[in-house]
Amino acid sequence: MQNRCIEIHDSILAAVSFLQGVAQLHFASVYIHQSEGVPGRDAGSGWTQEAILRIDNARVEGSFFKFPTSLSDGNIQLGSQTFDNEIPVPLRHNGSIALRLIGSEGGEVVSFTGSGAELELLGEPEYVEEFGP
Q1: In sequence order, what are the residues at sequence separation of 6 or more whose Cβ sits closer than 8 angstroms to the Cβ of residue 80?
Q2: Are 21 and 60 in contact (CB under 8 A)?
Q3: Which of 17, 76, 92, 130 has its CA 20 to 30 A from that of 118?
């Protein structure tokens, strides 16, 4: 069984839209680290894939200067658990969520909060590289 997570700092956010209280973050590309151990830390492989992250009852603070925007860092808090620079895969969470994204060009900080989140991976993943600790 492979464990996976998205590394925020190698991901590209293409657009953010809102519909009936749901924020939809469309990532042109997310970098997914896959490992038999702890993803993002133990040896494994890197993949890219298109993705959409939906946040229920969303509120946003801040904005990005332009899209698409490359991300340099961030974190997600799901209930009482915080993930630095990563988003767990798969992700379907009911409960409080806080997502903080930092743009790599202007250093913009954009924060989203809500009452639930769901990640949808689109298309097929593309192999990038082997990853070592």
Answers
A1: none
A2: no
A3: 130
* Beta bridge partners of residue 24, listed in sequence order: 17, 54
Q: Side chain identity at 74, as an amino acid letter?
A: G
Per-residue tens of pLDDT for the chain, all 133 residues: 679 999 999 899 999 999 999 999 999 999 999 999 888 789 999 999 999 999 999 999 999 989 999 999 999 999 999 999 999 999 999 999 999 999 998 899 999 999 999 999 999 999 999 987 7
Coil, helix or strand for 89? strand
C-beta of residue 85 within 8 angstroms of C-beta of residue 9? yes
121, 88 contact by CB (below 8 A): no
**Cβ neighbours around 82 below 10 Å, total:** 11
CB proximity list for 98: less than 8 A, separation 6 or greater: 76, 77, 111, 112, 113
Q: Which residue has the tokens 């209280």?
A: 21
Token pair for 1: 């069984």
**Per-residue DSSP letters for 42-61?**
SSEEEEEEEEEEEEET-EEE
